[in-house]
Amino acid sequence: MDTDFENLFDDGMLKLIDFSKHTSQFSPPISPNNPGDNLKLRPLNVNDYHKGYIGLLAKLTSTGDVTFDQFKKRFSQMKQCPNTYYIAVVEDLETNTIVATTTLVIEQKFIHECGIRGRIEDVVVCDTKRGKQLGKLMIGTMTALAEYLKVYKVSLECKDSLVPFYGQFGYKKEANNSNYLQLRL
């Protein structure tokens, strides 16, 4: 198979998740299988570089000047770590552009009986698609995927102003862990 058409993970997984337990309400109703008119939710594909994926991430944080060769190399490195990186995107089929994305990273642990932990990162929706519930869809999808993968805990970091948004999915601030510390190198 030509690697230019590979997805980061098996797209069949998105069809297997149980979205019915979703705690957030959608009006009008949307789902991973029906994200909206002319939209498709699917795994990241190596060709999404040409569909504006890096530009979309740049709306969230600094990406730098990533070439297609760099993108392909990182994509390949991620793909070689099976069951670790789950990056989903929403593609606008009319414009052939990526309009939303998020990442679920899985960590293998020794604690919790050699359990697995999930971390949701890089949630971003393009300006023209805001208000269409795509952020909710991405978080709900990755939360349901984490449950399908049987993680014991899913975490994410967000600005204080977004705590109520994530709260609709059951995410809560831990009282004893309300600060996030980091060292940027």
Largest sheet: 5 strands, mixed
* Strand residue percentage: 15-25%
Strand order of the largest sheet: 1-2-3-4-5
Distance between the termini: 39 Å
Roughly how much helix do the residues carry, as a percent range? 10-25%
Low-confidence stretches: none
Explained architecture:
With 185 residues, the protein is α+β, with helices and mostly antiparallel strands. It is 25% helix and 21% strand. The chain contains 6 helices and 5 strands. A 5-stranded mixed β-sheet has the order 1-2-3-4-5. Residues 77-171 form the N-acetyltransferase domain. It catalyses: D-glucosamine 6-phosphate + acetyl-CoA = N-acetyl-D-glucosamine 6-phosphate + CoA + H(+).
Short description:
This protein is 25% helix and 21% strand. With 185 residues, it is α+β, with helices and mostly antiparallel strands.
Comma- or semicolon-separated keywords:
single chain; 185 residues; alpha+beta; five-stranded mixed beta sheet; 5 strands; 25% helix; globular
